[in-house]
Amino acid sequence: MWGGVAAPSSGKSLHHTRREKAGTMPENVLDCLVIGGGPAGLTAAIYLARFRRRFQVVDAGASRAALIPTSHNHAGFPEGIHGKALLSRMTEQARKYGAHIVPGSVTRLERRPDGVFLATLDGEPIPARTILLATGVVDREPDLPDVPDVIRRGLVRHCGICDGYEALGKRVAVIGHGSSGLHEALFLRTYTADITLLSLGRSLVLTEEEGRQAAQAEIAIVEEPVRRVVVEGDQVRALDMLGGACRSFDVLYAALGSDARSDLVRGLGTRLDDKGCVVTDEHQRSSTDGLFAAGDVVRSLDQISVAMGQAAIAATAIHNRLRGVPSPRGAPDDTLSFSPQDLCTCCSRPDARRH
Ligand SMILES: Cc1cc2nc3c(=O)[nH]c(=O)nc-3n(C[C@H](O)[C@H](O)[C@H](O)COP(=O)(O)OP(=O)(O)OC[C@H]3O[C@@H](n4cnc5c(N)ncnc54)[C@H](O)[C@@H]3O)c2cc1C
Q1: Cβ–ligand 1 contact at 303 (below 6 Å)
Q2: Which residue ranges are recorded for the region named Disordered (predicted)?
Q3: For residues 38 and 135, what is the distance between their CA atoms, to the nearest angstrom?
Q4: Most buried one in 3, 14, 60, 316, CB count within 10 A?
């Protein structure tokens, strides 16, 4: 254990240590609290641990990456990698450098007048100089009769960018109620000519131009409600429609969008976009000083590689911002670990010469 960042085996979180010593020790403020332990949060953990920062990751254990059966588009894994395997490898790598990853859900985030953030975990406040919000998004589930949570259970696919390639030449259906459904269907047209857009009994809201695009791409549109879902193995294979027809597909996608898990920062007045995603600058800084965000919770392409890239940028910006806050390892002068010409522009110095 070093500088308050516990070794994985200790099982003792920093905020517990703080409570035990309350009144006898100066307040133990983290350099950073990472909220969320998916690909974004874990990448940040690897970087922050290797920057020897005093930080903690709190993770509620509902990463979208855990839903990936096998990812074939994540670089570096030619045979593909299971989402849970990737998370487990990243966790192992972060822990190797001393990262402390705590299970749980942060339920409240506020800021004291001195600028220190207070995050509430299990009713206990965790003080931190900076926050990295890496809480991801929640996919909107389609309303299919008697089969709830089809995305979370992996019964329907969700992301054409991720696995459209595997739908090459297959019969594909896309569940959507409007533009986003059509756009997913048009995207998947790269892979197959057999595409049906299903609105599950709702009337499909498309502009005239979108209607023309659908017709041009020969996308069949079905607005009829579904009576019964036929599940075979781990896939939805057919839908019995209310009118009596049975429609079979090789692959079913849901394209109903997602909701950003950004409620924690609403009280801080952090700028969010119209979808509730955190708005950040090129260094992943939000409009709230000291609050950074990375991954799906930021409006961008929802992909593992993007989450990792943003987290690397955020962690480096956080480290540079905290330059001068002593290293938990007590290095003679950790502020000199980079020469001034190496400072990237995400540090707080306006005269930084290198990115
Ligand atoms: C079925 C499916 C297949 C996919 N396939 C691919 C693919 O092949 N390739 C690809 O690149 N991408 C794929 N994706 C997308 C990819 O999973 C996401 O882009 C990626 O997981 C985003 O990482 P993240 O860290 O931002 O969010 P997440 O992975 O969702 O992690 C967020 C974490 O934050 C935690 N959290 C949330 N709120 C709190 C809180 N208040 N306190 C503590 N913890 C909290 C959550 O529990 C979760 O563990 C797929 C997604 C799905 C659903």
Answers
A1: yes
A2: 1-22
A3: 8
A4: 14
Q: Is 66 in the pocket of ligand 1 (CB under 6 A)?
A: no
Query: What's the rounded Cα separation, in Å, for the pair 194 and 173?
Result: 8
Residue 85 falls in which region: left (phi positive, over 0), alpha (psi -120 to 50) or beta: alpha
Could you tell me the pTM of the whole model?
0.87
Give the residue, by CA position, lying nearest to ligand 1 atom 46. Answer: 62
Task: Identify the CA nearest to 144 among candidates 281, 253, 298.
Answer: 253
Would you write out the chain's pLDDT as a tens digit for each of its 355 residues?
233 344 433 333 444 444 434 445 567 899 999 999 999 999 999 999 999 999 999 999 999 999 999 999 999 999 999 999 999 999 999 999 999 999 999 999 999 999 999 999 999 999 999 999 999 999 998 888 877 888 878 888 889 999 999 999 999 999 999 899 999 999 999 999 999 999 999 989 999 999 999 999 999 999 999 999 888 888 888 899 998 999 999 999 999 999 999 999 999 999 999 999 999 999 999 999 999 999 999 999 999 999 999 999 999 999 999 987 765 555 444 433 333 334 444 443 434 433 3
CB-ligand 1 contact for 253 (6 Å cutoff): no
3-class SS of residue 5: strand
CB 31 within 8 A of CB 53: yes
Mutate to test the pocket of ligand 1, among 277, 304, 305, 306 (most ligand atoms within 8 A of CB): 304
Ligand 1 site, residue 35, Cβ cutoff 6 A: yes
